[in-house]
Amino acid sequence: MSSQPNEPSELHRADAGAVPDPALALVLDANRLTHNTAPTRFVEADEIRFAYRRFGFPLGTPIVLLQHFMGNLDTYDPAITDHLATGREVILTDNAGVGLSTGAAPQTVAEMARHAASLIDALGLEHVDLLGFSMGGYVAQQIAVDRPELVRRLILVGTGPRGGEGMDQLAPDVAPLFGAVHDPQDLMWLPIFFSPSQDSQAAGRRFLQRIRARTEDRDVPVSATTVAAHAAAAREWGAAAPGSFDYLSGIAHPTLVVNGSDDIVVPTINSYILQQNLPNAELILFPDSNHGSHFQFTALFNRSVTDFVDVESGSILVG
Amino acid sequence: MSSQPNEPSELHRADAGAVPDPALALVLDANRLTHNTAPTRFVEADEIRFAYRRFGFPLGTPIVLLQHFMGNLDTYDPAITDHLATGREVILTDNAGVGLSTGAAPQTVAEMARHAASLIDALGLEHVDLLGFSMGGYVAQQIAVDRPELVRRLILVGTGPRGGEGMDQLAPDVAPLFGAVHDPQDLMWLPIFFSPSQDSQAAGRRFLQRIRARTEDRDVPVSATTVAAHAAAAREWGAAAPGSFDYLSGIAHPTLVVNGSDDIVVPTINSYILQQNLPNAELILFPDSNHGSHFQFTALFNRSVTDFVDVESGSILVG
Asked: N or C: which end of chain B has fewer CB within 10 A?
């Protein structure tokens, strides 16, 4: 794959979902992969064989998704990725040691960021938007710091800054949710991603239906070794320290920060801290929601993200 | 004017800007008033002759705008009101003692809310959306508490809760901005509504052009007596007190809270406090912006507000 333009194409500006040439549209439609049909592919970098999936409209700046703790290629939400795919390429990733990716999961976010950037490099992408959820948001921030030229825009969901509030460890009532055994196991996400309300839990069950809909070529669960390594990485990232937010002033990328009203995993105040300390960040907090607010307010999230990535620059937002 | 339906019409759900019947569209177009052409009208209530302007598409739930400290009918932004008017009626209001409205400006938000509700009643409106900016946001909250059945949705911009942080008085460097003499006087809003950045100040100058564009039938400046009374009302509302946020749990209305990243008038943290304490509130914070962030990110603000008021209920937001 060749490099991508620095700015979205005219097409993106006019109508991110439209295909200008009917003949081209037919060709694209015939070959169109979706979240559920895109094959798992592999690329080699850092002596790791990274698993990823790639689909969507092959113009403009691609968006790379970075996954949460204990998540894999199958826990991205097709209601989000298929929508994003109408206007750009979407690349779902497994970091080192996650799911079908080989290698050992590192015990620091810095190392996870290095691996994720190597994966992006190996795909031949020179300029991408990053959508990082939870721990994937830590990784996205670190990539923006280490490799600023690789990143065009950042979308940080259910995440927080280095040394944020209540981020050194999970709350005592939350930690057991990650170890609980369920049948099927994906039921674990209902109390982690969704609020206790009826509406939110119903949205959670719809989310589970969506992530179960892919029946073939699925990813494999995250191993206990990887869980332990990533838990160590999260603790290191979350350890409070004087000046731990200082790096945020150096992330000049336009950033969209999104979270639920009561995130029990990465407390919601950290999304506010991100917005207040990043030079160019918008914040959206949804009502009656938890760590996975974007799986609940999917339509609003999709609209906000496409608004955010489709405009030419931050300054075009100025009315 | 007769009463309004409780829920937006089918038309609103499908496409808030469209007119279904070409013949009807012609009739409406011929009679269409805009922000700049709608005449100042008057209605009597509470022994006050209230000044207001009313325009827009006469279906669905009307939206009533409640103005900021030292603002009048001419400081609402036509880039916002004319957009909202494509999908509903827009009603701009002067509270008692403001601009062309007669009566004495009260020294409490409670009394301001009583007057604003009387004005809405006198217009024959039984169910409205309220968009309150700054002190207008205090009034909107108070109406939602006192007259919950009168309100469908709340939009709270650049505002805060009773007894919020840093709301008992203006910061020492901010207070003089409200007394400074300018030629023309509306230049006072540049440092109050916009951030010091070039982009934000440029947006501010465009805002001033917009609010100067109405050349006839303009409102009159707010009197010194009214300024003093409203300053007292703001101090009373902002005075810190234990449990001062408790009333927010009783405002069940779907609420959209919007502010700039660094509001120097009503500190931004208060928008976060509103979102965290209201049972059903979404928060949007814009980057590089101040008290008047909606005048700067006008397109995004309009999109967010119409998304918010056009959906059938909060629960339809659940993906």
From this structure: N
